[in-house]
Amino acid sequence: MLRFMMIFWEVLLAGLIIGGLSVYLMYKSPVLTRGDDAGGETGTAGIQWEPIEKESHGYSEEEGREPQEDADDMQKEQNKSAEREEGQAEGVIYKETRVPGETTLVFAGDVLLDDHYSPMISMKQREDGVKDSFSEDLLKEMTDADIFMLNNEFTFTDRGEPTPDKSYTFRSETGNVKYLFDMGADLVSLANNHTFDFGEISLLDTLDTLEAAGMPQVGAGRNIKEASAPVYFDTGDMRIGFLAATQIERIASPPTRGATENESGVFRCLNPDILYKAVREAKENCDYLVVFIHWGTEKTDQPDWAQLEQGAGLASAGADLIIGAHPHVLQGLESVGGVPVVYSLGNFWFNSFTLDTCIVKVTLDTQGMKSFQFLPALQHGCRTSLMQGEEKRRVLDYIRSLSPNVMIDEEGYVTFL
Predict the structure, then answer these.
(1) DSSP 203-219
(2) pLDDT confidence of residue 82
(3) What confidence score (pLDDT) does residue 252 get?
(4) Residue numbers in the chain where pLDDT is lower than 50
(5) Which distant-in-sequence residues (6+ apart) come within 8 Å of 26 by Cβ?
(6) For the chain, how many helices (H) and strands (E)?
(7) 375: three-class secondary structure by DSSP
(8) 3-state secondary structure at position 244
(9) CA 256 → CA 196, 243, 379, distances in Å?
(10) Which pLDDT score is estimated for 58?
(11) pLDDT for residue 285
(12) Are 189 and 291 contacting, i.e. CB atoms less than 8 angstroms apart?
């Protein structure tokens, strides 16, 4: 009898232990369900494992992170999102760069999309349009740039009358705005002497066309506030500002009207005080400021007095880089008060003439300008190509002769002395 009772209590104790262990495992182990009924990952024989949610013990399983770290990151993302929404209302464009921590800027001179002139006539006859109008290596530089800027030397309109007594008036079909995107443009300047070629309606149509297409512009507007407004690109690591202005048509009442408080027009800067003020204000809101300016005397490779005077003034006001256009030919490079100045980019894709031209490629990081490269190109037969070999050396030598205070290596990298 005693032996029977001992066996009974041993069996009962074992049963209690096994039962308790089963209950423990049920709450601590994954639940087994059929693969047909669940949405988790399917294991052997169609069985899926659904982990039971664990209690929080003051840590995150992801790399052992503390909950406060996750909360901080979430708050940072919310703050960044709010900044983006606010920035978009203030003319800030957010741009992800190809190389983290670096931003590549590329600049080109005058571009003409007038349907009645040779470049557009030729392009529309070519099988691949833009691809056949630029060499492959040049188009790659244009489209690979984080920010590619050019001078929009025409209007987008089919209305208005040509400006009386003006030798050349340019306009393009509004649908041609797509070619700016095909070229890789991220921003255009309207601060030039052809933005008003067919009267006020041509400027307004140009503004409407660019806005509808989503192409940012600087240098013109429906009033002086718009015309003088900068555009900012925020790359996450830095904010880069762009301003554009024109001093061309140096007369009291120019055909290309300057914007006023109540009238549309371009941002005129023959009297530079308003431009210097805009530069100072823009620099307060960005890390690096580019001024793209329409200036100089046509068809001469030497900067004139107004370029030299305003270059120094812009540098003093806070510009970090000054890019010039209008002379239709190349001019030299110079450092003014530690600020790089390109006096003229020349024509880029503008007519059928054979002409030396270039793009300028500037790489920035959080410390400022990391590199500056002058890349010679040739406009020929309504096609623009990067130069190579002897032709490239010829143009680099020419730019060296116009730029006594800089050093330019064989690849076009520039050191400003």
Answers:
(1) HHHHHHHHHHHT--EES
(2) 53
(3) 81
(4) 1-9, 11-13, 16-65, 76-77, 80-81, 84-85, 87-89
(5) none
(6) 10, 23
(7) strand
(8) strand
(9) 5, 18, 27
(10) 34
(11) 96
(12) no
Distances 409 to 138, 160, 406 between C-alpha atoms, Å: 19, 48, 10
Q: Residue 159 carries which side chain, given as an amino acid letter?
A: R
Residue 194: per-residue pLDDT: 97
The answer to whether the CB of 289 falls within 8 A of the CB of 316 is no
Its sign, for the CA torsion 171, 182, 330, 207, is: positive
215-247 pLDDT, tens per residue?
A: 999 999 999 999 999 999 999 989 999 999 999
Looking at residue 70, what is its pLDDT? Answer: 58
Written as six digits, the tokens of 212 are 């509808």
Three-state secondary-structure class, residue 361 = strand
Q: State the DSSP code for 395.
A: H
How far apart are alpha carbons 300 and 402 in whole angstroms? 12
Structure tokens at 46: 């169609």
Distance (Å, whole) CA 158 – CA 169: 13
What distance in Å separates the CA atoms of residue 372 and residue 230, rounded to the nearest whole number?
Answer: 23
H-only helix segments in 96-185: 118-125, 136-144, 178-182
Residue 276, phi then psi, degrees to nearest 5: -60, -40
Distance CA 398, CA 123 (A): 30
The Cα–Cα gap between 106 and 42 comes to 52
pTM of the model: 0.80
Closest by Cα among 248, 258, 266, 274 to 191: 266
What is the enclosing helix (H) or strand (E) of 290? Answer: strand 288-294
**Which residue type is seen at 311?**
G
- What is the widest separation between alpha-carbon atoms in the chain? 130
Nearest residue to 347 (alpha-carbon basis) of 328, 361, 325: 328
Burial 357-393 (b: 16+ CB within 10 A, else e): bbbbbbbbeeeebeebbbbbbbbeebbbbbbeeeebe
Of 371, 354, 359, 293, residue with least CA distance to 327: 293
Q: What is the dihedral of CA 310, 313, 317, 322, to 10 degrees?
A: 40
